[in-house]
User: Which sequence fits this backbone?
């Protein structure tokens, strides 16, 4: 009986903690959306071109799917452009928590100014990279003409790259509009429940994302520290340790305190590697074994949490439901 009572008490405390975290998320975070405009680098062949290509295989063009690359996407100037887009996406993800609405994530309200400044810098870098690509574009088109042969078509390319590559961001409202309370109280209550459910799902998604990332980082480092290759300690990059440090920083910044178990697990992991440099793990065999043993013990805890907390199916309707805001 006492075990049942203790279990119920733990469940009540966990629910209370979860509800507090949901309220904290709604009060302290804002929705943010980052979008790109990006010139396509490939194009589907026209029906006539597919028929021509199909003749080589004695096939019918309508049963053939084929396309052409408009430019060499391995060109260093274009790859610089793609690298900046990748960095923007990583910065956005690392600065925010997931939300069960496509294209939307949650950032701390007190970080909005610095977030704007960082993205503005990224936009400046992106614009400079576009200008570099503009200078290179005639040469890329010439290369495409030589490589595509009769498939080359000058109208596939814009006259200018101005406005063809861009990044934009905004802060959409994800709450129920106040006017709806007066216009239709019943619908307002319905939508309020849906918003509350979304934030509840966001808390669950944040916990799951943190847990999965920690599990991946711990498993990777533990695997690199254990055993040997050809009788020698396995080689590991500095990032195997540095990425854990970056995770702890982001967890402290974005954690909403929704799971005491997760908080304690992160604290334990941080204590294991605190103050340890990658060079020390390479040079000090006893330290290497000690850290490896502690991480192995943590792996079982992480695995159990992942089993106990299966990924939840977050509904993401492709079409608006009746009553949804457009």
Assistant:
């Amino acid at each position: 009986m006492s075990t049942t009572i203790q279990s119920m008490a733990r469940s009540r405390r966990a629910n209370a903690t979860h509800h507090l975290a949901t309220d904290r998320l709604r009060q302290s975070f804002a929705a943010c959306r980052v979008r790109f405009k990006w010139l396509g680098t490939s194009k589907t062949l026209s029906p006539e071109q597919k028929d021509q290509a199909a003749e080589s295989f004695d096939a019918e063009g309508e049963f053939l799917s084929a396309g052409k690359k408009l430019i060499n996407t391995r060109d260093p100037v274009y790859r610089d452009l793609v690298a900046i887009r990748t960095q923007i996406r990583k910065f956005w993800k690392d600065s925010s928590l997931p939300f069960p609405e496509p294209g939307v994530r949650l950032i701390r309200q007190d970080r909005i100014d610095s977030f704007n400044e960082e993205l503005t810098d990224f936009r400046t870098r992106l614009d400079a990279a576009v200008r570099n690509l503009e200078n290179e574009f005639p040469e890329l088109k010439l290369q495409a003409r030589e490589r595509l042969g009769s498939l080359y078509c000058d109208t596939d390319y814009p006259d200018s790259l101005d406005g063809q590559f861009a990044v934009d961001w905004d802060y959409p409202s994800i709450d129920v509009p106040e006017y709806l309370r007066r216009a239709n109280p019943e619908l307002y209550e319905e939508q309020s429940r849906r918003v509350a459910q979304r934030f509840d799902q966001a808390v669950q998604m944040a916990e799951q994302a943190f847990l999965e990332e920690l599990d991946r980082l711990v498993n990777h480092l533990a695997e690199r520290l254990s055993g040997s290759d050809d009788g020698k300690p396995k080689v590991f990059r500095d990032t195997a340790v540095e990425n854990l440090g970056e995770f702890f920083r982001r967890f402290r910044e974005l954690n909403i305190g929704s799971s005491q178990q997760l908080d304690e697990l992160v604290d334990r992991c941080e204590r294991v590697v605190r103050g340890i440099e990658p060079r020390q793990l390479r040079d000090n065999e006893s330290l290497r074994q000690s850290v490896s043993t502690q991480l192995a013990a943590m792996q079982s805890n992480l695995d159990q949490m992942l089993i106990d907390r299966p990924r939840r199916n977050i509904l993401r309707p492709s079409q608006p439901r009746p009553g949804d805001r457009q």
